[in-house]
Amino acid sequence: MTHCMAIIPARGGSKRIPQKNIRPFLGIPIIKYSIDSALLSKCFTEVMVSTDDPVIAEVARSFGAEVPFLRSEATSDDQAPLADVVAEVIASYEIIGRCFEYFCCILPTAPFVTCQRLREGFELLKKTGAGGVVPVVSFSYPIQRALKIENGLIEMIWPENRNVRSQDLPPAFHDSGQFYWMNTISFLEQKHLFVKNAIAMEINAWEVQDIDTEEDWTMAEIKYEILQARLRVKAGGSRQP
Predict the structure, then answer these.
(1) Residue 75: which CATH number?
(2) For residue 147, is it within any domain?
(3) What is the SS3 assignment for 180?
(4) Separation CA 224–CA 230 (nearest Å)
(5) 110 lies in which domain range?
(6) Measured between alpha carbons, how far is 206 from 42 in angstroms, rounded to an integer?
(7) Residues 6 or more apart from 4 whose CB is under 8 A from it?
(8) Is residue 157 part of a domain?
(9) Mean pLDDT, the chain, whole residue set
């Protein structure tokens, strides 16, 4: 049996959106979406939440996740890299004799994550032998024509692209901010979530919404409801995490 761990990092003390990781998203604590999708995917022998907050730990346990320890002070700071959090989790499990060939770091504010996408990412990881799989989404506008504002004036960041047709510019992608499938050995060798031999899993823009502000949160709820309504019409059923 392949041993895989889901790591859901959920630090307390969010400043821009208070209690962000357990705030109700359409009436349900947002972290539950990530926990449910991990559990229903059947990919994992362990689904754990890494947190420094006892309240988040209690909520996570109530939804079926494991919280075997609270984070150290070093990884509880809002400046701590996510890779350090993951490394601490792996090391803590190794101390008790539990090792995992693969892991998936699933963000706690990712209600668009589904068990299907998690399984798809895992299968891609195993099939290709890559060090990692990261879901990405294309930018809706060519980033080569990005603008900057200096002293109130607009300037192109890359003026050499001023007269290049949009269709002649290569597509660009960004991290979906949902999950990171990793080969544990590759991660431990490189200690970051974008390992050199990671491959992309492109997903639809409807499945992606960054949530960093109140406006983002509202947009995510609107977008989620529209997406679920479309899926119900198509499948004739309710949401499947």
Answers:
(1) 3.90.550.10
(2) no
(3) strand
(4) 10
(5) 4-137+171-235
(6) 24
(7) 43, 44, 45, 46, 100, 101, 102, 103, 104, 122
(8) no
(9) 94
Find the length of the chain: 241
Q: Closest Cα partner for 105 from 133, 78, 130?
A: 133
* Residue entry with tokens 């990712």: 110
The torsion region of residue 129 among left (phi > 0), alpha (psi -120 to 50) and beta comes to left
Note the pLDDT tens digit of each residue in 165-221. Answer: 988 999 999 999 999 999 999 999 999 999 989 999 999 999 999 999 999 999 999
- Terminal Cα distance for the chain, rounded: 24
Residue 79 has pLDDT above 60, yes or no: yes
Q: Of the candidates 97, 84, 109, which has an alpha carbon nearest to the alpha carbon of residue 20? A: 109
Encoding tokens for residue 227?
């997406």
Cβ atoms within 10 Å of 83's Cβ, excluding its own: 16
Query: Residue 60: inside a domain, yes or no?
Result: yes
Identify which of 51, 69, 58 has the alpha carbon closest to the alpha carbon of residue 107.
51
By DSSP bridging, strand 153-156 and strand 147-150 are: antiparallel
Question: How many distinct helices (H) and strands (E) make up the chain?
Answer: 6, 11
**Helix, strand or coil for residue 210?**
coil
pLDDT digits (tens, 9 = 90+) for 90-133: 999 999 999 999 999 999 999 999 999 999 999 999 999 999 99
Alpha carbon distance 71, 121 (integer Å): 27
pLDDT greater than 90 at residue 239: no
Is 145 part of a structural domain of the chain? Answer: no
Total number of domains constituting the chain? 1
Backbone φ and ψ of 194, nearest 5°: -110, 75
The model carries a pTM of 0.92
